[in-house]
Amino acid sequence: MSESQEFLVAFGRLARSKFRSRFHLSAEDRKYIADKGIDVIRRHAEDFIRTRLAPACPPNDGRQTPMRGHPVFKAQHATATCCRGCLEKWWKVPKGTEIPLERQSRIVDFLMSWIEKELSNPPSQNGSRHNTGP
């Protein structure tokens, strides 16, 4: 199965979660991405994953990813890559072990895929989308 096929399957699973499917990019997030550029957003994602998620025992695990404040934070909640507990539950990444660089890269690719998917869908005008998360 190709990476894009794996991502489609994963997006399908996440879409069935009432909590995960509530996250969407806000107008402010979209502007931030447009101002900074997608390459800078990717570098931010790489840094967040390396420092906040990849260590075997990250500080404040379970509370290290805010619900808002950066598009990558929303992407992490939407994709269940926000803490080691979610990574273990959704992606079978065991707690207490450092996440190897290759796996970190796949997580970043998935986050960026979610962000690009969000950018390709115009925000709803009827208010049915929750743009700031729960």
List keywords for this structure.
134 residues, single chain, 0% strand, 6 helices, globular, mainly alpha, 56% helix
Tally of alpha and pi helices? 6
Count of beta strands: 0
Summed up, the domain count is 1
Kindly report the average pLDDT value.
88
Report the helical percentage. Answer: 55-70%
Listing every helix as H and every strand as E from the N terminus to the C terminus, the arrangement reads HHHHHH
Low-confidence stretches: 125-134
Q: Which structural class do you get from the secondary structure elements?
A: mainly alpha
Q: Rg from C-alpha positions? A: 14 Å
Estimate the strand proportion: under 5%
Cα separation of the termini: 33 Å
**Which outline best applies?**
globular
- Main pleated-sheet profile: none
How does this structure look, described?
- The chain is mostly helical.
- The chain has one domain (19-120).
- The chain is 56% helix and 0% strand.
- The protein contains six helices and no strands.
- Helix 3 (38-53) crosses helix 6 and helix 4 packs across helix 6.
- The longest helix has 20 residues, at 101-120.
- The chain is globular.
- 24% of the residues are buried.
- Mean pLDDT is 88; it is low at 125-134.
